[in-house]
Design goal:
With about 270 residues, this protein is α/β, with parallel strands linked by helices. It has a single domain (about 15-265), classed as Vaccinia Virus protein VP39 (Rossmann fold, 3-Layer(aba) Sandwich). The protein has ten helices and seven strands. The chain has helices spanning about 15-35, 55-60, 75-85, 120-130, 150-160, 170-175, 180-190, 210-215, 220-230, 230-245; strands at about 45, 65-70, 90-95, 105-110, 130-145, 190-205, 255-265. The chain has a seven-stranded mixed sheet with strand order 3-2-1-4-5-7-6. Helix 1 (about 15-35) packs parallel to helix 2 (about 55-60). Bound molecules: S-adenosylmethionine.
Length: about 270
């Protein structure tokens, strides 16, 4: 321990991602789609669709005419395509900074848990606005890494106490952008109108400690990548410290929350 660490954000192994945060993103997505309040029959784009958590919710709750999901990860796209056989949905490779769609071809652009991983967010917002018709909606949500995204915050707080070098990887420090002020500014600076930010907090109930810990051993997101980079003894020390720290009920279950910040704005044309 003690070595300086560089962040690694890799996205593969769709099923492992599902067990890590896909299952919690799926609880945030319905609240987000309801908040957007889009008329049925719209054409949607899901940027960074991953394994399809938000796409699936739009199909269930948003009554779209069609939805396209784009993502740079072939693994995640394969899981999304298998999980979402709806003929209104299609998936294709794509990057937020160069969206593979013509100008003004969708009514709504959404993006769940992606913006903080995009190197040039301003370019992404320009692209989102470009492909949205005049009067259409652009909306996104990101985890509240500094507050209510407790499963990750507890992980990193515990890791930082054991391994000071890991502090540079703590997602609350890396993703300071994930706060209402910077989110609002990003959307306003992109020229979107009537920009609003809304907190969404959902319960994350783990059956037992293993249900919390096991996904960190397999998924490809930042915290699991760090957990797997440790030697066996260090990982065991982290596991034990976390088990001591997490609020465990008599039946072994662990009740935390996952919080997100949602932001939306309209394309004035
Ligand atoms: C935390 S996952 C979120 C996936 C999904 N939207 C969800 O809610 O479960 C982050 C996703 O962003 C994608 N991603 C990373 N960089 C991207 C970029 N520059 N453009 C588009 N998507 C990107 C990753 O491949 C991954 O699928």
């Amino acid at each position: 321990m003690g070595r300086p660490l560089a962040p690694v954000d890799s996205w593969s192994g769709g099923n492992d991602y599902e067990n890590y945060v896909g299952r919690w993103s799926r609880l945030v997505a319905p609240r987000f789609v309801a908040w957007l309040s889009v008329q049925p029959g719209a054409r949607w784009l899901d940027v960074g669709c991953g394994t399809g958590a938000l796409t699936e919710t739009v199909l269930l709750d948003g009554s779209p005419d069609a939805i396209v999901g784009i993502d740079p990860s072939p693994d995640f796209l394969a899981v999304a395509a298998a999980q979402v056989p709806d003929p209104r949905a299609s998936f294709r490779p794509g990057n937020a900074q160069a969206i593979p769609l013509e100008d003004a071809t969708v009514d709504v652009v959404v993006s769940g848990l992606v913006l903080n991983f995009v190197p040039d967010r301003e370019a992404a917002l320009r692209e989102m606005r470009r492909v949205t018709r005049a009067g259409g909606t652009v909306g996104a949500y990101v985890w509240d890494y500094q507050g209510e995204m407790q499963l990750m915050k507890l992980f990193w707080d515990t890791a930082a106490a054991l391994d000071p070098a890991s502090r540079t990887l703590h997602e609350a420090s890396r993703f300071r952008f994930c706060r209402p002020g910077p989110l609002r500014a990003l959307f306003i600076d992109a020229g979107l109108l009537s920009v609003e930010v809304e907190p969404i907090v959902v319960p994350t109930v783990f059956r037992d400690f293993d249900d919390y810990w096991t996904p960190f051993l397999h998924a490809s997101a930042p915290a699991p990548t760090y957990a797997r980079s440790l030697g066996e003894d260090q990982r065991e020390a982290l596991r034990t410290a976390l088990q001591r720290r997490l609020p465990t009920r008599d039946d072994g279950s662990i009740h935390l929350t996952a919080g997100a910040w949602a932001v939306r704005g309209f394309n004035g044309g």
